[in-house]
Amino acid sequence: MTTNTPPTDLKDFPEVRHIGIQEPPPRQPAPGKPKKRGLIWIVFLAIIAGVTGYAVWRIQQPNAIPQQGQGNGNGRKGGKGGRGGGGGNVIPVVTAKVKRADLPVFLNGLGNVTAFYTVTVKSRVDGQLMKVNFNEGDLVQQGQILAEIDPRPYQVQLDLAQGTQARDQALATNAKLDLERYTTLLEQDAIPKQQLDTQKALLAQYEGNLRTDQANIDNARLNLTYAKVTAPITGRVGLRLVDPGNIVHASDQNGMVVITQLQPITALFTIPEDNLPAVMQKLRAGIHLTVDAYNRDNSVKLDSGTLETVDNQIDASTGTSRLKAVFPNKSGNLFPQQFVNVQLKVDTLQNKLVVPNVAIQNGQQGTFVYTVDPETSKVHLKTVSVGVTDLNNAEVKSGLTEADLVVIDGTDRLDEGTQVRIRRPGELDEINAPSGRGRGGRGRGGRGGNRGENGAGAPPNGAPAPAGANTSDASPANPGGDRGVVRDAARGAFRGGGGAPGGYKGAGGFKKGGGGFKKGGEAPQ
User: How confident is the model at residue 53 (pLDDT cuts 50, 70, 90)?
Assistant: First the structure.
């Protein structure tokens, strides 16, 4: 049997309510934030982006950055001239005059310091080490007693040798008296001649024993002398290798201590084989060449000495020859196995045209210098031929005269015909010295000009600020003032006073009120 049941419409279900569960109150729509604050944020971010972009552009334009200290102090005239006023591109430089001087010729080499003498002190006799008479690192003199070995065994040997000598001396004396008697008896024909000859041989034997005894005595005394170990040279002792109480032997390999002579001291260094003929020519002429030793970075001169000799062969693997120099080392700056830079003076060029090394430039034109024309204050590029150089000066073979002025500082921004001025001494220190905001502070853009000492952007004490100036001061809520916001966001954008036309003015920037950063008000969210 089939029952027709009408389909159920889900829309007609009754509403279901849960008993005991409290329904949350309907959510109230959040009060809408003022659209004005969102607009302020957009304007703020746009200003930050513009300031940052301008700062990047300004950094990429080095010629657009005016030089310091060239303005006339007038703030309104310094708007486009930047820091210090004036709108020219005059570059300050430091110059030096080309001169004639004697130029020494040096050969540079790398070397190691070696002790003049190195001695390993060893015991000459066997025995127990009783005493050490030096401290490690002491400077000892030749003949000074360094250690003492037990002398008693050698004293006993000396006494024994002396006793044997006394016995043999008595026998020899008796044999000599018998010889005299036998000689008298032989004259009386009382004894055979053979007996006299035997007595002579016996006396000679005793005399030989006496010489042996004397040698044994000398040997025992020598061993007693060796029991006191002395310094063979004057020098500095190293670390002690044997402690008191140990038995030392004459066959020990390590010895007792090592002494190195430091005054004088030597250094072995190398020079290229191509420079060897010039050195040998001086040595054969009997000239004592001067050698200077410098530390690792050539900043400190350690000592000066003379060239001693040259090795008898060239190292084929490096193409260099070894040389030996001797230094007095009175100051003690040189130490064995120390690395040094060596300068060997082989000649002195007389009355040569020289310029400072920093004036020499290298580029596509080759080797050149910048010279300054005193009449027009413009620089000119001149190619030069450079000869011998030392630490400070370089020989100029051609391209310059004694009347020329060469640029030694500020060459990185120069080109042919660049207008320059010679920087006076101490000017750089004055520029880098800290200053107040009212005296030589940062410029504030084109219209604001340079807030210099006499500029329009710095009103006198007690005078009201001019119209259009930024009058936002620091407050407890905003310690830096409104000016600090943009300055901290892109410090350096207004450096030199080269801001956008109109600069940053209080009227067009962040004001006190008007929906911006209000004094004591809430910051935008």
Answer: confident
Which strands sit side by side in the sheet containing 228-230, from one edge to the other? Answer: 228-230, 145-149, 127-132, 247-248
Residues in the chain: 525
- Structure tokens that stand for 212 in this block: 């042996």
- Percent of the chain scored above 90 by pLDDT? 44
Q: From CA 342, how far away is CA 109, in angstroms rounded? A: 5
Question: Lowest mean pLDDT: which of 105-114, 158-167, 311-320, 388-397?
Answer: 388-397
* 212 in a structural domain: yes
HEC letters along 206-232: HHHHHHHHHHHHHHHHHHHHHCEEECC
Summarize the chain as % helix, strand, coil (round to 5): 25, 25, 45
Q: Does some domain include residue 74? A: no
Report how many domains make up the chain: 2
pLDDT digits over 452-499, tens only?
A: 333 333 344 444 333 333 433 433 334 344 444 334 444 443 343 333
The Cα–Cα gap between 525 and 38 comes to 8
In CATH, what number is assigned to the domain containing residue 361? 2.40.420.20
Any domain includes 385? yes
Query: What is the torsional sign of CA 409, 413, 415, 417?
Result: negative
Please say which residue of 172, 198, 226 terminates a domain. Answer: 226
Residue with tokens 């008296």: 177
Output b/e per residue, 469-503; b: 16+ Cβ within 10 A: bbbbeeeeebeebbbebbbeebeebbbbbbbeeeb
Domain with 220 in it? 151-226
User: What ranges make up the beta strands (E) of 420-481?
Assistant: 420-422
CA 279, 282, 285, 287 dihedral sign is: negative
State yes or no: pLDDT of 84 exceeds 70.
no
Residue 186, pLDDT score: 85
Would the pLDDT of 521 be above 50? no
In a domain, residue 409? The reply is yes
State the pTM of this model.
0.54
pLDDT band (50, 70, 90) for residue 40: confident
Which helix (H) or strand (E) segment holds residue 408: the answer is strand 405-409
The C-alpha angle 282, 288, 293, rounded to 5 degrees, equals 110
Question: CB of 445 within 8 A of CB of 506?
Answer: no
